[in-house]
Amino acid sequence: MSIVRYTSDNHLKLLQNGDDFFPALIAAVDHSVSEIYLETYIFFPDEVGRRIIDALKRAVLRGVDVHVIIDWLGTGPKLCGLLSREFSQSGIQYHIFNSWFKRGFVRLHRKICVVDHRIAFVGGINILNDLRYDYNRKQMLASPRQDFAVKIEGALAMMIYQEAIRLWEQTGKLSLWERFSRYRSLYLKDRIKNAKTALAGFIVRDNFRNRRTIQRAYLKAMGMARRRIILSTPYFAPGKRFRNALASAASRGVEVILLIGCGEFWVQDSVAQSFYPKLLKDGIKVYEYRKTQLHGKVAVIDDSWATVGSSNCDGLSLFLNHEANVVIRDAYFAQDLKKRIEAAISDAEPVFQSSFMNRPWYKRLWYGTAFMIYRVVMRTITWGDYN
Question: How many domains in the chain?
């Protein structure tokens, strides 16, 4: 059975950072005529967030049904309260995801917007200024945060639309008839086609039907790699199966390149660094990105397979949180994304086995200790899934 259900008749546009993403998102919202579904981990009402809120309000005034889901932890309890009041007053329908950990540790980490079931955005970009540090929003970054999203027009937008409605209904309170009416309406919508088409699929990770879907898609693609794997992730702490798949590819002669974000969380950096000796020994090239915050979760395999989304390569994203990725089988798109990742690699620092082993013994001891603590925590909160 195929892990990814690909559809044709898709027009895809790669968006890098907020300079590309926010104008495209606002333009789509301003041209909406029926409904909007927006999901985000962080919604911060700075100068960028205000522009998004204003666009959503304009849509409501035109009679568009606007639905917003924001994560309680990612956005912050106090800010969720302030946004809730503003959304209510302006007619924006909203849900707060998993407030006070009522559903356990799971978070809504995916970033999705669907406009009129015709245009969709999927990626890793939160609603806040690229120059604003996302976990300390009073602090500004020296350079714009590195991140990606995809604008999708075509058949795949309908699949993303269906998934957005599914989560909206899961997090809200609807009668049985309202649920039935919404699902029935999905199949009455016209689909659009475009002159330029690409094969693309939409995959999510949740704690119901799709517990390991994103990891399985990665494992299958890495297992079929023949020439090159280039992967960029802010946090690198996947389970053993994921790491073994990278090592197996390298042993077949595949060039494996990892671009890992550093400098955001000291403990997270230590966990990633605990894997370096084995990764480097297996012939995997490792680069640390320290120029600014690396937030893009993207990969390209053999210049023909690519993924862009919200899922990090760590325990939380692969085994606990709600995540969403687009998988693309299109050479033009993959090569475009590869060039942008390579540009980031040129600003990164390569890690060499000799220099890493020359680090003080107590640092290397701490790396291993950090991973053991991380593994215990992940296995506990994922009920043993982290492996």
Answer: 2
